[in-house]
Amino acid sequence: DPDAGENGRLLYSLVNHQSNEFDIDENTGQVFTVSVAGKTGTFYLEVQATDQGTSRLTARTTVNVTVDPSSSNNIVVVVLNEMINTVERNIVEVKRVLEDKLAWNVYIVDVYSNEFERKARSSTDVTCVKIITFDEANQEVPAEDVKRKLREQKSNIEIELEKIFSRPVTTSIEAAPADSASPELIATIVLSVLLACSLIGFLVYVAFTIERKRKREQQYLIKQRAEIAEGIDNLWASDKNGSVKSLEKLEHINN
């Protein structure tokens, strides 16, 4: 925006509020990932810029973000003693430093924390940056060569990162984690287990109900037989008036 003052100051936002996967720096317009774990393909983000004048004007554009997971054996993990949110916001600068000191093109595969809980994204002080490096011929650089260069340039890289994060930053190299099951696969497994447990529970309930009904029927028959036997045993007993019961009572019982 060529205007001066507040009329020229722009604030950026994501129109579709896709904050579960991406976020945007409202002052610079830089888009960065929050979490795209287990997802692939192209995401279409609608970004809006708004000036801060009295009559605020806006403009929108679509930003296409392609998530391309790699199964390369040449993945290297660089560990920084910084909070993941801070690293994600400055990932472009981190990439620039790595490319400058390694003298290769660096592709950021993923930025993640070792913490399992999502809330740890803002509390952990250890962040892993998974990278693949390409040479001038656009060929993957072997992981061992990347690790060797990272060790050689460790102090220089940390000096440049300190300028970005305004505090001392230490780096280390970690083994690339094995690919884990996608959230979709995990959800399918969990749902299958829950369904199986529900089915087993239902079958147990049905069996228990049938067994209880059978026992009640048996008890009822036993009770009826006991009452008939008692009636026969007391057939010739006196009634309330002291008279002897007749054979008509026996016929009634037999019927």
UniProtKB/TrEMBL annotation:
Alphabetical list of PROSITE patterns matching this protein: CADHERIN_2 (PS50268)
Pfam families reported for this sequence: Cadherin
SMART domains in the cross-refs: CA
Domain of life the protein comes from: Eukaryota
Keyword terms of this UniProt record: Calcium, Membrane, Repeat, Transmembrane, Transmembrane helix
Molecular-function annotations in GO: beta-catenin binding; cadherin binding; calcium ion binding
GO biological process: cell migration; homophilic cell adhesion via plasma membrane adhesion molecules
Main location: membrane
InterPro entries: Cadherin, Cadherin-like_dom, Cadherin-like_sf
Membrane-spanning parts: 185-208
Every Cadherin domain range: 1-77
Location of the protein in the cell: Membrane
One GO term describing the cellular component: catenin complex
Protein name: CELR3 protein
UniProt source species: Probosciger aterrimus
Gene name, Swiss-Prot/TrEMBL: Celsr3_0
